[in-house]
Design a protein that fits this description.
Chain lengths: ~575, ~450
């Protein structure tokens, strides 16, 4: 650590910091467009020009003769940075006035309004009036940039973050700068749109409303959106995300910066793959085929039969009581034959609740790990010129083949309660398994023919899931559970990082979050609280002892046995 | 020695029959310098060039020998020499004449310089428009390979060198050394941020030196006749100013614009603008007076008639508010020409050529052009004059606020034109008249 002074504030900085990072440590903002922690330095926007000087051995400060870009200028012990002098302020005002020269007055129809760096910096560092008395350059909007990307060309400030992203992070190099000087535009070659699997990130990177997500375009003003910090459940990379919702509807997912997880980005599959949360086919209420009354009332999902606002009877109480009774009966009659299948989509807390409940009744019950979906191979970026993957130590982003968020977490619970991790494949076809409690929660169909056949005609079939399946269609009890956006809990990603996810919205209709329903099923006192459950788990399961603090911070905590694994290669 | 008796050195072979051929060059003593250099240690060659006080003729005037010493001492891998034949500064054509008429002089300088800097490959970056130059160079390079003056084991010395001729694609920004390097690598010619400087990390990430064509042409003569001979010409350094590196050697001056005899003339450094125009350029045409004179390429700005006794060495133009000597391309503007039109032409050039990376240059050059368009259309406001000065200040009154010097070059004509001819601008705006002149040719 070195000592740096920013506007008379002394602060300790990392010797690898540039001036922008050093100033940040002192709570001082140096406005910038083209610089980004994950991308190469180009120092082209000139927004971050500051005065930098050094402290001589005799204590006097020698400031440099001219302004320098904060993003390009390294610091050392004794560096003095000034961002509040009149020279810097004039430069900032002029740069903003110049950027706004050809910028269209689109705020009222631009998606970026409310989270726009041009708006924010102009308000904080710019001038109220422009002296432009000339016609602005008008350029056409481009919808062909990518399947998910639209470009409003004349809003672009030529920071080239998007171009550098496709060169340095995705390696696919689709985005180009064409033409020269003030006529420059971002574009793609005719047959090579920006459709790589990381394409959505350029929308986040774009500081203005030039690059927009077609999915989110014109859907919601960002100041109506509330954010919840969560984790993407698409694969075991477990990108830290922010779930943005309004009025109980999720509008978009955005990556959260996490140096311990995935850095600054997320893949498109995760980013745009949340629509299933609001799919009409979701299980919206629990049902029990036992009683004709509840069967009739809750069996159908059609709107006409949905519980109305005036119907205050809670279907869950009766069904959960029945479920518990049936489970206890099944276990008492034949513990070996009772199998609870824990899906790798469960959070650690939910897995713990179910495992402790089942094993609490009889330790001879079986706990197995549900199907782990694997698609293809780990997809590493940046790609080379022929699309080849990078070397391990040059990888900047990985989309993992394992398409579930918490196999490691659920396995830790299983190892504790069952002694070992038994996969469902090894128990299928065993004749002794006849009473089943399945937990699903998968984004797509997961009930294979093999599973369906192996379950056959069971003595008891309870399914806790979000979508109907061949199993839920013939289950005795269906517990309509929640998607990741509707639950609090902990996920452990493929590199052993335990992260806390928070619910953003409520489950639809009468569906209920898994944690809450499991608490009630197990008749534990109190409400579901992830933090207190983590403390309990941390003290009970040694492998998960890092959870004992309860609060995992915004970046998560590594499980002990992964403490020395690098988070990400080379970001 | 008086100026009129000056015998050309760099231009001495121009006009001789077959001046471009190797036979003719050798008959006039060519390639003896190369043989001599190859017999020296490469560090000796650098010392001679350093001692001569030769400063780069590309515009920046950086001491050449000193630049060569910036290369790292221990290098594992190739070193490259790039020759800047992009010559796009408006008013400049000295490199073109040198290459077309006496290519071997330049090439001999290149081989000697490559030897001195231990370069393994030399890249000659030539602007695309110089087709005749390219053909002359190609022929000369082929002749050199055939005569063991290029390729492996040159003249049995053990030193090997290859030269590649690389043609540009019509962009002024490729004359900026890192813009040139980017273009050479096949990329957009967007100049790089510095540090790292090319001597450490240049073409293809290797240590690279970029030198101007005229600078290269001086090298064989320095080797043959010595540093002291070179220093016998020009203006010696000011003993009271430790920062002054002197202005030594012969210099090619381009004269163009409103003169009777536009052309290229070689003189010792330090001739005044007035003498250059009146004696060597045949005087201002049509019996008119010079209103404004550009001392060294458009980027340097303008001098007034009263300032024409300024010596055109590396220090002179700076003393009258110009950016420097630049390429020593003198352009004369007569007193029948409106400075508004001239400035508009200048701004149009820089707006067209700005690479567009940095906000101030990209937006500022375009804005100043639009303002001048509006003024020329009769809709100017008096506040525009100070606005233009402010734009010029923001894009580069203090050189260095942008990634490269194009912005400074764009700002100086605005600054000097308005500061020195303010009355004319005010009068033009007040009159509200529209310009009748067409945009001058050559401004793309």
């Amino acid at each position: 650590m070195v000592k740096v002074k920013v506007n008379d504030i002394e602060v300790d900085a990392d010797p690898k910091d540039n001036c922008i990072l050093a100033a940040r440590r002192a709570g001082v903002e140096i406005p910038h467009y083209c610089w980004h922690e994950s991308l190469s330095v180009v120092a082209s926007c000139r927004m971050c020009l500051v005065e930098v000087g050094e402290t001589k051995p005799d204590g006097t400060v020698a400031m440099g003769p001219k302004l320098v870009p904060g993003c390009q200028t390294p610091i050392k012990d004794g560096t003095v940075i000034r961002t509040d002098s009149s020279k810097v302020k004039t430069s900032q005002q002029m740069t903003l006035e110049l950027l706004l020269l050809n910028h269209p007055l689109d705020c009222s129809i631009c998606d970026q309004a409310g989270e726009c760096y041009l708006q924010d910096y102009t308000y904080k560092y710019g001038k109220a009036h422009s002296r432009l008395d000339e016609p602005k350059l008008h350029r056409e909007d481009k919808y062909h940039i990518g399947e998910q990307i639209a470009l409003f060309t004349d809003r672009c400030v030529m920071c080239t973050r998007c171009v550098r992203f496709t060169r340095e992070i995705s390696g696919t190099s689709e985005l180009q700068v064409v033409a020269r000087g003030s006529h420059e535009e971002i574009d793609v070659f005719p047959d090579q749109p920006c459709n790589n699997k990381l394409a959505g990130n350029v929308v986040d990177l774009c500081p203005v409303g030039a690059l927009c997500s077609k999915d989110f375009l014109y859907k919601k003003r960002v100041w109506w959106l509330k954010h919840a910090e969560s984790v993407c459940t698409g694969c075991s990379t477990g990108c830290s995300i922010s779930v943005d919702q309004n009025d109980n509807k999720v509008y978009r997912l955005r990556p959260r910066e996490n140096p311990l997880a995935q850095g600054h980005f997320m893949c498109d599959e995760g980013r745009f793959g949340f629509k299933y949360i609001h799919d009409e086919r979701r299980l919206k209420a629990p049902r029990w085929t036992g009683s004709s009354e509840s069967a009739r009332r809750t069996a159908s999902n059609s709107p006409a039969d949905k519980p109305s606002d005036l119907n205050f009877s809670d279907p869950w109480t009766g069904i959960l009581a029945t479920a518990k009774k049936r489970i206890q009966e099944a276990i008492k009659s034949d513990a070996h034959g009772f199998v609870a299948v824990l899906s790798p989509f469960m959070t650690v807390e939910e897995a713990y609740l179910l495992a402790s409940f089942v094993k609490g009744i009889d330790s001879h019950t079986r706990l197995v790990l549900g199907p782990v979906p694997v698609v293809g191979q780990d997809d590493r970026y940046p790609k080379g010129p022929k699309g080849e993957p990078p070397a391990e130590n040059k990888t900047k982003f990985t989309i993992r083949a394992e398409k579930c968020p918490n196999r490691l977490g659920v396995e830790a619970v299983l190892r504790h309660f069952e002694g070992d991790v038994v996969r469902i494949e090894s128990i299928l076809g065993r004749p002794e398994a006849h009473a089943w409690y399945f937990v699903g929660g998968y984004q797509t169909g997961w009930v294979t023919e093999a599973i369906d056949r192996a379950v056959g005609t069971p003595s008891l079939l309870i399914v806790q899931d979000i979508f109907p399946s061949p199993l839920s269609d013939r289950a005795d009890i269906v517990l309509a559970s929640a998607s990741f956006a509707e639950r609090d809990g902990t996920y452990v990603n493929g590199l052993g990082l335990a992260q806390a996810a928070h619910a953003a919205i409520r489950p639809p209709a009468d569906a209920r979050s898994d944690g809450r329903l499991l608490m009630e099923l197990a008749q534990r006192t109190g409400l579901f609280n992830a933090l207190s459950l983590r403390k309990e788990i941390g003290s009970v399961i040694p492998e998960l002892s890092v959870l004992a603090t309860g609060d995992l911070g915004e970046h998560g905590v590594r499980l002990h046995r992964f403490a020395h694994t690098p988070a990400l290669a080379n970001t | 020695m008086s100026q009129t008796e000056f015998q050309p050195i760099l231009l001495s072979r121009i006009g001789r029959p077959n001046s471009q051929s190797i036979e003719s060059y050798r008959a006039d003593g060519g390639y003896t310098a190369l043989a001599k250099a190859l017999s020296m240690a490469n560090t000796e060659v650098i010392d001679v060039v350093k001692a001569s006080g030769l400063r780069g003729r590309g515009g920046a005037g950086f001491p050449t020998g000193l630049k060569w010493t910036f290369l790292p001492k221990d290098v594992n891998g190739p070193i490259y020499l790039c020759v800047n034949g992009d010559e796009s500064e408006p008013g400049t054509f000295n490199n073109r004449v040198l290459i077309e008429e006496d290519p071997h002089q330049v090439l001999e300088g290149i081989v000697i310089s490559s030897f001195a800097t231990r370069s393994t490959t030399a890249y000659f970056y030539l602007r695309y428009e110089y087709g005749r130059c390219y053909r002359a160079l190609k022929k000369a390079v082929d002749e050199m390979y055939a005569n063991n003056l290029l390729g492996k084991n040159i003249l049995g010395s053990g030193y090997s060198l290859d030269i590649y001729l690389h043609r540009g694609a019509c962009a002024y920004i490729c004359g900026e050394e890192t813009g040139l390097i980017e273009s050479l690598e096949g990329k957009r010619a967007w100049p790089r941020i510095k540090p790292p400087f090319p001597a450490i990390e240049g073409a293809f990430r290797r240590p690279t030196v970029v030198n101007n064509v005229e600078t290269m042409a001086c090298i064989p003569h320095i080797i043959n006749k010595g540093a002291e001979w070179f220093q016998s010409m020009g203006i010696p350094k000011d003993p009271n100013n430790p920062r002054d590196a002197g202005s030594y050697g012969p210099k090619l001056y381009c004269i163009s614009g409103h003169v009777n005899r536009p052309g290229l003339v070689e003189l010792p450094m330090g001739v005044t603008a007035r003498e250059l125009i009146d004696k060597h350029g045949g005087g201002v045409w049509k019996g008119r007076q010079a209103k404004a004179v550009i001392p060294g390429g458009l980027s340097m700005g303008f001098m007034t008639n009263a300032e024409l006794d300024t010596p055109l060495d590396f220090n002179g133009p700076g003393r009258v508010g110009c950016l420097g000597l630049g390429t020593a391309a003198v352009v004369v503007i007569d007193d029948h020409t409106s400075m508004v039109d001239v400035l508009y032409n200048a701004c149009r050039f820089f707006a067209h050529e700005s690479c567009g990376q940095c906000t101030p240059c990209r937006e500022g050059t375009a804005w100043s052009t639009k303002i001048l368009e509006r003024i020329r259309d009769g809709r100017g406001k008096l506040s525009d004059i100070d606005l233009l000065l402010e734009i010029a200040a923001s894009i580069g009154t203090i050189p260095g606020t942008t990634i490269c010097g194009l912005a400074d070059g764009a700002a100086w004509p605005i600054k000097t034109a308005i500061n020195k001819f303010r009355g004319e601008f005010e009068e033009y705006i007040k009159s509200g008249r529209r310009s009748e002149s067409h945009v001058l040719a050559g401004a793309h």
